[in-house]
What we know:
The protein is mainly alpha-helical and 198 residues long. It is 75% helix and 0% strand. The longest helix is centred in the middle third of the chain and has 25 residues, at 56-80.
Amino acid sequence: xxxxxxxxxxxxxxxxxxxxxxxxxxxxxxxxxxxxxxxxxxxxxxxxxxxxxxxxxxxxxxxxxxxxxxxxxxxxxxxxxxxxxxxxxxxxxxxxxxxxxxxxxxxxxxxxxxxxxxxxxxxxxxxxxxxxxxxxxxxxxxxxxxxxxxxxxxxxxxxxxxxxxxxxxxxxxxxxxxxxxxxxxxxxxxxxxxxxxx
Length: 198
């Protein structure tokens, strides 16, 4: 089937809508921001908005899907570097710490979103769950190469360390939070290597 050039190119208007929504949703929350504001700041018409996103919920899903892709890309780059699993996990931890220390940090986009969309059947909630399952599975796979058991428990601990650091990073000194998080990752890796994980 033939496609014309405009179908194969990303839409500039769609990109503007998504980048505008990403900035505002992350900094101010999702429910507090209306379509009119996004349309105005992206400098598009309402018709253009609805051509690309049939509803605000579709835009929220696109926002979280883009965030998921970015984080998967970081993890895949760390894995592709071919380092031993502990160093790969340290690299993933370092990228989390870097995010916490970045200007404008407001916590985890996924945890923030799920707080606003608590219904497990909601498409936004489903995107969050899929992202978190991917993250947990990725960590479990890496930890399993260090020691088969208890990789699943260690991975859950890593996720909880990360979640706590993300929450604390926008409330307290981000450098101290990052340092505490990275120390926790080191302790987890040591416990996994020596099978002293509880």
